[in-house]
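Check out one such.
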Amino acid sequence: MTGHDHDVPYVEHEVGTVAGDGFARRSTDEGVRVEGHCPRCQGPYVSAYRRGYVVVGSKGLFSRERAEESDPVTGAVHICECGHPHPGQPDALPFVGCGAQWRIESGTEET
């Protein structure tokens, strides 16, 4: 893996489905914490999801739909939140990152 590419310009970009083995999932009292790196800029990625919910829509709206049988990791759309303001990023976004969005296939390691 290369380091975080801070020069990647901000673009809302659907990466697609990425391999689950590049992400770790950790159980918490509230749900699942996912850790890894953005597949576009390679920046650090950490996000928490409640069990039994699937994220739909954009992250800024936190739109959720009840789904008891859904895996909160593979059912969610993950969005880059590397914390670095990439060139061209609009000021009014609720998160800071390169604009990448992706899904994670099964295979994430739970610890």
Observations:
- Confidence is low (pLDDT under 50) at residues 55-69.
- Strands lie at 13-18, 24-27, 31-37, 44-50, 53-55, 64-66, 78-79, 100-104, 109-110.
- The chain has no helices and nine strands.
